[in-house]
Write the C-alpha coordinates for this entry.
Amino acid sequence: MASAPPNHRAHSGTYTFSSRPRAVETRRKYKEAPDEQTHSYYGNIMYDRRIIRGNTYAQQIIPTTAQPDPAEIQRQQEIKRKAIAIKRAQEQSRAKTPEALQGRKHIDVQTDLYLEELSNVTVATDIECQTDAFLDRPASPLFIPAKSGEDVATQIEEGELFDFDREVQPVLEVLVGKTIEQSLLEVMEEEELACLMAQQRAFHELRNIHLAEVQRLQEKERRHSEEKERRIAQQKEVLQKERETAEKIAARAYTKQYLADLLPAAFTSLRTHGFFNDPVETDIETNFLPWLMDEVNRKLERRYAARELLDNIIHDAAQKRLEQFKEPET
Protein backbone atom coordinates (compact mmCIF):
# COMPACT_ATOMS: atom_id res chain seq x y z
CA MET A 1 0.00 0.00 0.00
CA ALA A 2 1.48 3.37 -1.00
CA SER A 3 1.96 6.09 1.59
CA ALA A 4 -0.24 9.19 1.62
CA PRO A 5 1.07 12.57 0.47
CA PRO A 6 2.34 15.04 3.10
CA ASN A 7 -0.86 17.09 3.09
CA HIS A 8 -2.87 13.97 3.99
CA ARG A 9 -0.49 13.27 6.88
CA ALA A 10 -1.03 16.85 8.07
CA HIS A 11 -4.75 16.23 8.14
CA SER A 12 -4.18 12.92 10.03
CA GLY A 13 -2.40 14.68 12.98
CA THR A 14 1.31 14.97 12.02
CA TYR A 15 2.65 18.55 12.42
CA THR A 16 4.38 20.26 9.49
CA PHE A 17 5.57 23.87 9.01
CA SER A 18 3.33 26.12 7.00
CA SER A 19 6.30 28.32 6.16
CA ARG A 20 10.09 28.14 6.42
CA PRO A 21 11.46 28.62 9.95
CA ARG A 22 13.01 31.97 10.77
CA ALA A 23 15.46 33.03 13.50
CA VAL A 24 14.06 34.62 16.63
CA GLU A 25 15.28 38.06 17.58
CA THR A 26 18.06 38.07 20.14
CA ARG A 27 16.49 38.66 23.53
CA ARG A 28 18.17 38.82 26.92
CA LYS A 29 16.96 36.53 29.65
CA TYR A 30 17.68 39.02 32.47
CA LYS A 31 17.74 42.78 32.67
CA GLU A 32 21.12 44.36 32.21
CA ALA A 33 22.73 45.94 35.30
CA PRO A 34 23.27 49.70 35.23
CA ASP A 35 27.05 49.36 35.52
CA GLU A 36 27.31 46.54 32.97
CA GLN A 37 29.05 47.46 29.76
CA THR A 38 27.08 46.92 26.58
CA HIS A 39 28.60 44.65 23.95
CA SER A 40 27.72 44.03 20.36
CA TYR A 41 26.30 40.59 19.63
CA TYR A 42 27.09 39.01 16.30
CA GLY A 43 24.80 36.47 14.73
CA ASN A 44 27.39 35.24 12.22
CA ILE A 45 30.99 34.44 13.19
CA MET A 46 32.15 35.53 9.75
CA TYR A 47 31.44 39.14 10.79
CA ASP A 48 32.61 38.78 14.40
CA ARG A 49 35.65 40.94 15.09
CA ARG A 50 36.85 38.59 17.80
CA ILE A 51 37.47 35.80 15.29
CA ILE A 52 41.01 35.78 13.85
CA ARG A 53 41.26 34.69 10.24
CA GLY A 54 44.26 33.58 8.26
CA ASN A 55 47.69 32.51 9.51
CA THR A 56 48.21 33.27 13.21
CA TYR A 57 51.99 32.84 13.19
CA ALA A 58 52.59 36.46 12.11
CA GLN A 59 50.13 37.93 14.61
CA GLN A 60 51.55 40.35 17.16
CA ILE A 61 50.95 38.79 20.58
CA ILE A 62 50.70 41.35 23.35
CA PRO A 63 52.70 40.16 26.38
CA THR A 64 50.98 39.90 29.75
CA THR A 65 53.39 42.40 31.26
CA ALA A 66 52.54 45.12 28.69
CA GLN A 67 50.88 48.28 29.93
CA PRO A 68 47.13 48.58 29.05
CA ASP A 69 45.71 51.51 27.21
CA PRO A 70 45.38 54.57 29.53
CA ALA A 71 42.19 55.64 27.78
CA GLU A 72 40.63 52.24 28.43
CA ILE A 73 41.69 52.38 32.09
CA GLN A 74 40.22 55.84 32.46
CA ARG A 75 36.99 54.73 30.82
CA GLN A 76 36.71 51.73 33.19
CA GLN A 77 37.37 53.96 36.21
CA GLU A 78 34.73 56.39 35.01
CA ILE A 79 32.17 53.61 34.68
CA LYS A 80 33.01 52.32 38.16
CA ARG A 81 32.81 55.83 39.61
CA LYS A 82 29.37 56.34 38.07
CA ALA A 83 28.13 53.02 39.46
CA ILE A 84 29.36 53.92 42.97
CA ALA A 85 27.71 57.35 42.72
CA ILE A 86 24.40 55.78 41.63
CA LYS A 87 24.55 53.27 44.46
CA ARG A 88 25.31 56.01 47.01
CA ALA A 89 22.45 58.14 45.72
CA GLN A 90 20.05 55.22 46.03
CA GLU A 91 21.17 54.57 49.61
CA GLN A 92 20.75 58.24 50.53
CA SER A 93 17.29 58.42 48.97
CA ARG A 94 16.13 55.38 50.93
CA ALA A 95 14.50 56.09 54.32
CA LYS A 96 16.70 54.91 57.16
CA THR A 97 15.70 53.69 60.58
CA PRO A 98 16.86 56.02 63.36
CA GLU A 99 19.59 54.79 65.68
CA ALA A 100 18.50 52.90 68.81
CA LEU A 101 18.57 54.65 72.17
CA GLN A 102 21.31 54.03 74.67
CA GLY A 103 20.91 50.63 76.28
CA ARG A 104 18.61 49.32 73.53
CA LYS A 105 19.04 47.61 70.20
CA HIS A 106 17.07 46.98 67.05
CA ILE A 107 15.56 43.54 66.46
CA ASP A 108 13.74 42.01 63.51
CA VAL A 109 9.95 42.29 63.90
CA GLN A 110 7.36 40.67 61.68
CA THR A 111 5.23 43.46 60.16
CA ASP A 112 3.16 41.41 57.75
CA LEU A 113 -0.61 41.58 57.86
CA TYR A 114 -0.81 37.91 58.83
CA LEU A 115 1.43 36.18 61.38
CA GLU A 116 3.50 33.24 60.19
CA GLU A 117 3.31 30.04 62.16
CA LEU A 118 6.72 28.50 62.80
CA SER A 119 6.71 24.73 62.32
CA ASN A 120 9.17 21.98 61.51
CA VAL A 121 6.87 20.72 58.77
CA THR A 122 7.65 22.37 55.48
CA VAL A 123 4.51 23.62 53.77
CA ALA A 124 4.53 22.78 50.08
CA THR A 125 2.23 24.56 47.66
CA ASP A 126 1.72 24.26 43.93
CA ILE A 127 2.08 27.46 41.95
CA GLU A 128 1.46 27.83 38.25
CA CYS A 129 2.58 30.60 35.95
CA GLN A 130 1.75 31.41 32.38
CA THR A 131 4.73 31.61 30.08
CA ASP A 132 4.92 33.83 27.09
CA ALA A 133 3.40 32.50 23.93
CA PHE A 134 6.42 33.66 21.94
CA LEU A 135 9.23 31.08 22.27
CA ASP A 136 12.86 31.67 21.51
CA ARG A 137 13.04 28.70 19.18
CA PRO A 138 10.22 26.41 18.05
CA ALA A 139 10.51 22.67 18.44
CA SER A 140 12.21 20.83 15.62
CA PRO A 141 9.72 19.09 13.30
CA LEU A 142 9.71 15.32 13.04
CA PHE A 143 11.90 14.22 10.17
CA ILE A 144 9.89 12.26 7.63
CA PRO A 145 11.94 10.83 4.76
CA ALA A 146 10.55 10.99 1.26
CA LYS A 147 8.51 8.02 0.15
CA SER A 148 10.18 5.71 -2.39
CA GLY A 149 9.06 2.37 -3.83
CA GLU A 150 5.78 0.51 -3.43
CA ASP A 151 4.16 -1.19 -0.42
CA VAL A 152 3.37 -4.90 -0.81
CA ALA A 153 1.28 -6.99 1.59
CA THR A 154 1.02 -10.76 2.03
CA GLN A 155 -1.97 -12.58 3.55
CA ILE A 156 -1.06 -15.27 6.14
CA GLU A 157 -3.75 -17.57 7.45
CA GLU A 158 -3.95 -18.90 11.00
CA GLY A 159 -1.69 -21.90 11.58
CA GLU A 160 0.51 -21.43 8.52
CA LEU A 161 3.59 -20.16 10.36
CA PHE A 162 3.33 -21.90 13.77
CA ASP A 163 1.63 -25.15 14.88
CA PHE A 164 1.46 -25.04 18.67
CA ASP A 165 0.97 -28.77 19.26
CA ARG A 166 3.73 -29.80 16.88
CA GLU A 167 6.18 -27.15 18.11
CA VAL A 168 5.48 -27.68 21.79
CA GLN A 169 5.70 -31.51 21.71
CA PRO A 170 9.56 -31.67 21.53
CA VAL A 171 9.84 -29.06 24.25
CA LEU A 172 7.46 -31.03 26.47
CA GLU A 173 9.30 -34.25 25.74
CA VAL A 174 12.61 -32.63 26.70
CA LEU A 175 11.13 -31.09 29.86
CA VAL A 176 9.43 -34.32 30.94
CA GLY A 177 12.50 -36.40 30.08
CA LYS A 178 14.81 -34.04 31.98
CA THR A 179 12.42 -33.98 34.93
CA ILE A 180 12.16 -37.78 35.06
CA GLU A 181 15.93 -38.13 34.62
CA GLN A 182 16.57 -35.61 37.39
CA SER A 183 14.04 -37.39 39.62
CA LEU A 184 15.69 -40.76 38.98
CA LEU A 185 19.09 -39.26 39.70
CA GLU A 186 17.81 -37.78 42.95
CA VAL A 187 16.20 -41.10 43.96
CA MET A 188 19.42 -42.97 43.14
CA GLU A 189 21.40 -40.38 45.06
CA GLU A 190 19.09 -40.78 48.06
CA GLU A 191 19.42 -44.59 47.90
CA GLU A 192 23.19 -44.27 47.61
CA LEU A 193 23.26 -41.89 50.55
CA ALA A 194 21.09 -44.32 52.55
CA CYS A 195 23.50 -47.18 51.70
CA LEU A 196 26.45 -45.02 52.67
CA MET A 197 24.78 -44.09 55.95
CA ALA A 198 24.04 -47.79 56.66
CA GLN A 199 27.64 -48.72 55.89
CA GLN A 200 28.84 -45.86 58.05
CA ARG A 201 26.62 -46.99 60.94
CA ALA A 202 27.87 -50.59 60.56
CA PHE A 203 31.44 -49.34 60.44
CA HIS A 204 30.90 -47.21 63.56
CA GLU A 205 29.35 -50.17 65.40
CA LEU A 206 32.24 -52.46 64.42
CA ARG A 207 34.70 -49.74 65.33
CA ASN A 208 33.04 -49.26 68.72
CA ILE A 209 33.22 -53.03 69.32
CA HIS A 210 36.92 -53.04 68.42
CA LEU A 211 37.53 -50.02 70.61
CA ALA A 212 35.75 -51.69 73.55
CA GLU A 213 37.85 -54.85 73.04
CA VAL A 214 41.02 -52.78 72.80
CA GLN A 215 40.10 -50.92 75.99
CA ARG A 216 39.40 -54.24 77.77
CA LEU A 217 42.75 -55.65 76.67
CA GLN A 218 44.51 -52.44 77.69
CA GLU A 219 42.84 -52.57 81.09
CA LYS A 220 43.83 -56.24 81.49
CA GLU A 221 47.40 -55.43 80.49
CA ARG A 222 47.42 -52.54 82.93
CA ARG A 223 46.24 -54.78 85.78
CA HIS A 224 48.86 -57.39 84.90
CA SER A 225 51.55 -54.71 84.82
CA GLU A 226 50.45 -53.31 88.18
CA GLU A 227 50.36 -56.84 89.71
CA LYS A 228 53.81 -57.57 88.31
CA GLU A 229 55.21 -54.30 89.65
CA ARG A 230 53.59 -54.95 93.05
CA ARG A 231 55.08 -58.49 93.22
CA ILE A 232 58.50 -57.18 92.21
CA ALA A 233 58.26 -54.45 94.86
CA GLN A 234 57.26 -57.03 97.51
CA GLN A 235 60.14 -59.31 96.51
CA LYS A 236 62.58 -56.40 96.61
CA GLU A 237 61.26 -55.47 100.05
CA VAL A 238 61.72 -59.06 101.31
CA LEU A 239 65.27 -59.18 99.94
CA GLN A 240 65.99 -55.79 101.50
CA LYS A 241 64.74 -56.99 104.88
CA GLU A 242 66.79 -60.20 104.64
CA ARG A 243 69.88 -58.19 103.73
CA GLU A 244 69.30 -55.79 106.62
CA THR A 245 68.78 -58.75 109.03
CA ALA A 246 72.01 -60.41 107.87
CA GLU A 247 73.87 -57.12 108.23
CA LYS A 248 72.44 -56.65 111.75
CA ILE A 249 73.46 -60.19 112.77
CA ALA A 250 76.98 -59.71 111.38
CA ALA A 251 77.27 -56.30 113.09
CA ARG A 252 76.09 -57.79 116.39
CA ALA A 253 78.61 -60.63 116.20
CA TYR A 254 81.41 -58.25 115.27
CA THR A 255 80.39 -55.90 118.09
CA LYS A 256 80.42 -58.72 120.64
CA GLN A 257 83.79 -59.87 119.41
CA TYR A 258 85.17 -56.34 119.46
CA LEU A 259 83.71 -55.40 122.87
CA ALA A 260 84.87 -58.62 124.54
CA ASP A 261 88.31 -57.10 125.34
CA LEU A 262 87.22 -53.49 125.12
CA LEU A 263 85.36 -53.33 128.46
CA PRO A 264 88.30 -54.39 130.71
CA ALA A 265 90.69 -52.23 128.71
CA ALA A 266 88.35 -49.25 129.01
CA PHE A 267 87.99 -49.66 132.77
CA THR A 268 91.73 -50.01 133.11
CA SER A 269 92.38 -46.92 131.03
CA LEU A 270 89.75 -44.91 132.94
CA ARG A 271 91.23 -46.05 136.25
CA THR A 272 94.71 -45.18 135.04
CA HIS A 273 93.62 -41.71 134.00
CA GLY A 274 91.88 -41.12 137.32
CA PHE A 275 88.25 -41.27 136.30
CA PHE A 276 87.48 -43.70 139.16
CA ASN A 277 88.49 -41.57 142.29
CA ASP A 278 88.89 -42.60 145.98
CA PRO A 279 86.22 -40.95 148.19
CA VAL A 280 88.69 -40.16 151.00
CA GLU A 281 91.18 -38.72 148.56
CA THR A 282 88.47 -36.75 146.85
CA ASP A 283 87.23 -35.39 150.20
CA ILE A 284 90.74 -34.41 151.21
CA GLU A 285 91.38 -32.68 147.88
CA THR A 286 88.06 -30.85 147.81
CA ASN A 287 87.55 -30.00 151.50
CA PHE A 288 90.66 -30.40 153.65
CA LEU A 289 93.38 -29.13 151.37
CA PRO A 290 91.62 -25.81 150.51
CA TRP A 291 90.97 -25.17 154.24
CA LEU A 292 94.58 -26.02 155.09
CA MET A 293 95.92 -23.72 152.42
CA ASP A 294 93.68 -20.89 153.64
CA GLU A 295 94.95 -21.34 157.25
CA VAL A 296 98.58 -21.45 156.14
CA ASN A 297 98.16 -18.31 154.06
CA ARG A 298 96.49 -16.53 156.99
CA LYS A 299 99.35 -17.46 159.39
CA LEU A 300 101.97 -16.46 156.87
CA GLU A 301 100.23 -13.09 156.39
CA ARG A 302 100.33 -12.48 160.21
CA ARG A 303 103.98 -13.49 160.31
CA TYR A 304 104.78 -11.18 157.41
CA ALA A 305 102.93 -8.34 159.19
CA ALA A 306 104.84 -8.92 162.51
CA ARG A 307 108.15 -9.12 160.68
CA GLU A 308 107.45 -5.87 158.83
CA LEU A 309 106.48 -4.17 162.10
CA LEU A 310 109.70 -5.39 163.79
CA ASP A 311 111.75 -4.15 160.84
CA ASN A 312 110.15 -0.72 161.13
CA ILE A 313 110.91 -0.55 164.90
CA ILE A 314 114.50 -1.57 164.33
CA HIS A 315 114.87 0.93 161.53
CA ASP A 316 113.49 3.74 163.72
CA ALA A 317 115.80 2.81 166.63
CA ALA A 318 118.83 2.73 164.40
CA GLN A 319 117.95 6.13 162.97
CA LYS A 320 117.65 7.62 166.45
CA ARG A 321 121.00 6.16 167.51
CA LEU A 322 122.60 7.48 164.41
CA GLU A 323 121.31 10.95 165.04
CA GLN A 324 122.58 10.83 168.62
CA PHE A 325 126.08 9.88 167.49
CA LYS A 326 126.14 12.67 164.98
CA GLU A 327 125.30 15.43 167.51
CA PRO A 328 128.47 17.46 168.56
CA GLU A 329 129.74 17.40 172.08
CA THR A 330 128.95 20.42 174.15
Residues 1-12, 34-38 have pLDDT under 50 and may be disordered. The two ends are 218 Å apart (CA to CA). Residues 164-259 form the longest helix (96 residues).
